[in-house]
Write a structure and sequence with these properties.
By secondary structure, this protein is an alpha/beta fold. Among the domains are: about 50 residues, no CATH class; about 110 residues; about 200 residues, Rossmann fold, CATH 3.40.50.1700. Helix 3 packs across helix 14, helix 4 packs parallel to helix 5 and helix 7 runs antiparallel to helix 15. Bound molecules: alpha-D-glucopyranose. The site of alpha-D-glucopyranose (GLC) has 7 residues, from loops.
């Protein structure tokens, strides 16, 4: 090799451009450098400019963050702090405003078609626009995949957290987290606004079912399992699907009658001392951060009158200071606006308190303009902006988003796969809690002569899936693929068994016959958030009428309750031979049939205290014993 050639390679290796003396980032490693013809002189070979440090996958993450931040304008920084819902922004605007995040709220499926492929196309359009910005920073696209990738038609819908709390099986929850991440990665979505790590103290709250349990250690164990499963490194290399424990802090401890947004208790005021706030509501966040969570969503609720979105103490001093949280805090949907009717004041207060990314979610320009004005006026220090953007960028690098921003199309075949449905069925079975079994009527024989099935929840995918399914509020009817509880029952019994179903319990046959058994599958209609706040915890009137009818007519009556929380059944339960809480089982109602017929044992235990009356709610209000205590659950004889 000529001396000149050797000299040139040496210069390149030292990262000194052939045409200039200033050091530049080291070129590609010599091993991969394209060796030019040995006869060419250095002047004939202008050096390829070194790629910016932040684009180099093997560079230290904090060095990448520093490099990228140093290149950003204020507008690009504030763009990164802006999270907009997809109907309120186009890909062109994402590019123009250098937006950092886009989300689908509940039911935010593509307008033209709700399929995994259509989702991937929709997300890809936004991501491509982001990659075409000056610095090519990919967006985070977020969804509430709180029980599977639940806005996507065809995705596997797992039991809501209340059922997983009853199953109390961390390994199962981790497997559900992983399956959820795979189905999300198939659509190019790597940000999940889950798990809910609330510790509900008042089951009148419409979000009780999003919580695992009433006790912090129970929630912490399952929340960290979900985070580990969702963020499993082997999910879709190099991507990592990021969790978002929510809603920080104390969302499950609000007082009835203090709700916001017109709700009774949702988004209300948590009126407890600091010691109680820390003891009850903080442990799940400590566990989730320990498990790898790098984004936390702030709560709409307040603590003794101060909105959490405005709390420097809880968002910055405790979470980022005391707990050392180095990820970023995202606001809830339009929650910043609740701080003050003066939008400028609301934005300044929230960002200074420690909100790093604002789920605006509609008017990007208004937020960007307002925050820009606040920085220029000195009301929000640029150091606070840099801290927020540093946190956001650190997470994006950590997730592998720069290296692989698009969908993993190879995983599309796993969306709604038989394996994931089998997992959903296992989870539905393990969630069921046996609360009464007079005369060991359960498990039922598969050779029973006549089965009379009643109740609206028996044959209704939407009811058994609950809220946050396809639509924000969920929807009754045949809204997702899977098996209803009735279909599970029909598949379980022998060909000789006669199964009669009538949703109101009006039967042709004789349900009092010796060889007859009745199963009433009754439940709540789907709801989400504050729309589910319930003053009386009563079953729907139609379901009560069906129960009355079947209690009268049936010789043997098994009741299965499909609900997001314990309901008041005290006046009815004496007329039942057996009682099962199935919660919100999701895609595979067959899992409930599995425990009714002994295919699987009953293993569920109550994650929430079951009150005799609504006067025993919230926890601690009454000294009288509840109908069933936290942790209660029977097994069937011989198990
Ligand atoms: C909602 C919920 C929150 C959800 C967010 C985005 O209002 O409070 O749990 O993640 O908006 O859908």
């Amino acid at each position: 090799m000529t001396l000149r050639r050797t000299l040139f390679i040496l210069l390149v290796a030292l990262g000194v451009g052939a045409c200039g003396g200033q050091a530049s980032p080291p070129q590609q490693s010599l091993a991969t450098e394209t060796l030019a013809s040995p006869t060419a002189s250095p002047t004939e070979m202008p050096p390829t400019p070194a790629p910016p440090l932040y684009t180099q996958p093997d560079a230290d993450i904090d060095a990448r963050v520093d490099d990228l931040l140093s290149r950003m304008t204020l507008a690009e920084k504030i763009g990164q702090m802006t999270l907009i819902e997809k109907n309120s922004i186009s890909p062109d605007e994402v590019r123009e405003l250098a937006i950092g995040g886009v989300l689908s709220g509940g039911g935010g499926y593509p307008k033209d078609e709700n399929s995994p492929e259509a989702w991937a196309r929709m997300v890809e359009a936004y991501q491509q626009a982001a990659l075409e910005t000056r610095l090519g920073i990919p967006i985070l696209y977020g969804v509430d995949a709180v029980h599977g990738h639940n806005n996507v038609y065809g995705a596997t819908i797992f039991p809501h957290n209340v059922g997983l709390g009853a199953a109390n099986d961390a390994e199962l929850v981790a497997r559900i987290g992983r399956a959820t991440a795979v189905e999300m990665a198939a659509t190019g979505i790597y940000w999940n606004y889950a798990p809910g790590v609330m510790v509900p103290q008042d089951i009148r709250w419409g979000r009780t079912y999003e919580g695992y349990a009433e006790r912090p250690e129970h929630v912490a164990a399952l929340a960290s399992a979900f985070v580990r499963g969702l963020q499993s490194p082997d999910i879709a290399p190099p991507n990592l699907v990021m969790s978002t424990p929510k809603h920080y802090l104390g969302d499950g401890g609000t007082a009835w009658g203090t709700g916001d947004s017109g709700y009774q208790i949702d988004q209300g005021d948590t009126q407890v001392d600091e010691a109680t706030m820390r003891a009850l509501h903080l442990p799940p966040y400590q566990a989730a951060i320990e498990a790898g969570a790098k984004v936390i969503m702030a709560s709409y609720s307040s603590w003794n009158g101060e909105k959490l979105h405005a709390s420097l103490y809880w968002l910055t001093d405790v979470l980022k200071g005391e707990l050392g949280f180095d990820g970023f805090v995202v606001s809830d949907w339009g929650a910043i606006d609740q701080i003050s009717p003066d939008y400028y004041e609301a934005v300044v207060t929230a960002i200074n308190a420690g909100i790093d990314m604002n789920m605006v979610p509609y008017d990007a320009r208004r937020f960007i303009t307002t925050l820009t004005q606040a920085v220029e006026a000195g009301d929000v220090p640029e150091a606070r902006i840099d801290d927020a953007v540093r946190r956001i960028l650190r997470v994006k690098f950590h997730m592998g988003l720069f290296e692989h921003p698009m969908a993993h199309a190879e995983l599309l075949s796993e969306v709604g796969s038989a394996a994931h449905h089998a997992l959903a069925r296992e989870a539905a079975a393990k969630s069921a809690v046996l609360l009464k079994n007079e005369g060991n009527v359960l498990p039922l024989s598969k050779d029973v002569g006549h089965l009379f099935v009643g109740g609206l929840a028996a044959d209704n995918m939407g009811i058994q899936a609950g809220g946050w399914t396809i639509e924000w509020q969920g929807k009754t009817g045949d809204i997702i693929p899977g098996t209803t509880i009735l279909e599970g029952i029909q598949a379980a019994v022998s060909p000789q068994t006669v199964v009669e179903y009538n949703k109101f319990g009006n039967f042709q046959g004789d349900p009092s016959a010796d060889d007859a058994v009745c199963i009433a599958v009754v439940g709540e209609s789907p709801y989400a958030e504050g729309r589910g706040d319930s003053a009386d915890l009563r079953l729907p009137t139609k379901e009560i009428r069906t129960l009355n009818r079947m209690e009268e007519a049936c010789a043997r009556l098994v009741v299965v309750l499909v609900s997001g929380r314990p309901l008041i059944v005290t006046d009815h339960i004496d007329a039942w031979d057996a009682f099962v809480a199935a919660w919100l089982p999701g895609s595979e109602g067959a899992g409930v049939a599995d425990v009714l017929f002994g295919e699987r044992p009953f293993v569920g235990r109550l994650p929430y205290t079951w009150p005799r009356s609504v006067e025993q709610v919230p926890l601690g209000r009454s000294d009288e014993p509840p109908l069933f205590p936290y942790g209660f659950g029977l097994t069937t004889e011989g198990e």
